[in-house]
Design a protein that fits this description.
42% helix; 325 residues; globular; single chain; alpha/beta; 10 helices; two-stranded parallel ribbon
Amino acid sequence: MKALITGISGFVGSHLTEYLLETTDWEIAGTVFGPYGNISDLCGQVELYPAELSRLDVMTFVLEQAQPDVIFHLAAQPLVSASHRDPWGTLEINIRVQLNVLEGVSRVNPQCRVLVVGSGEEYGLVSPEDLPIDEDTPLRPLSAYAISKVAQDLLGLQYYLTHKLRIVRVRPFNHIGPRQRLGFVAPDFASQIAAVELGLRPPVIEVGNLDTRRDFSDVRDVVRAYVSLITSGELGQVYNVGSGKSHAVRDVLDILLAKSRVPIEIQSDPQRMRPSDVPESVSNVTRIRERTGWQAEIPFEESLDDILAYWRAEMKKQAADGSLA
């Protein structure tokens, strides 16, 4: 087996690469746009293609060279906040690249299995009676990011129905873990705490809405789900991936602050508030559990421990090399 991971150097892509190297004998290829970053230590073990996937000719070239059996399509603009600032940029990137992946597969290797990665954000405006959210819950997206993920999801369905491609679709809810970029709640809190501990900023942490509740699962559980679905998922079907539990954003902050080595005050930052927010989001993961046996295993607090440890090391490194200046 040979896997192609688009966005291999990203948060999820790097963890997926590590998991496949540790647990399978698959060959692994990946596309990179920009620095190798999270996979710099793995370059000798994977086949890498520096590639701008918004160009169909580049995508088809990668597919012709790599000849994968499975594709995990992870390359995307992942931030809801960025989509509020630049909605068209998010729509253009996420939809165009997804279309190029599917069109490229249809032309070059139609027998390849493709994991199309949507998002729990697709469900958008859910009411308490909708909870937990199953795959039949209506989609009421609240951001350009969510719209882009609905489009990716339905493009996957369209290419399954019209081109008979071997597509499995997934809607992951919030996932957290080491190496997640800033702009998400857990790394934003953890990085600020680590900076305060080093005396790099005042002992104040800036927060947005702490009362929303989200379904947080560890990225290392999420990549296990992706592998289980690419090998065993029903073609054309869509699967939620999540913990099946919700935690308040305040819980994330309280647990991380309890681990801080110095006292820190909390300060509200209006810039961190979303234009619209759903009070609670929690997944129903019955479908994936019944199909593959997968379920989330890593405890919530263990994920937060690892995130804080990562940002403590990262802040020390950045302080030492002067990149914080």
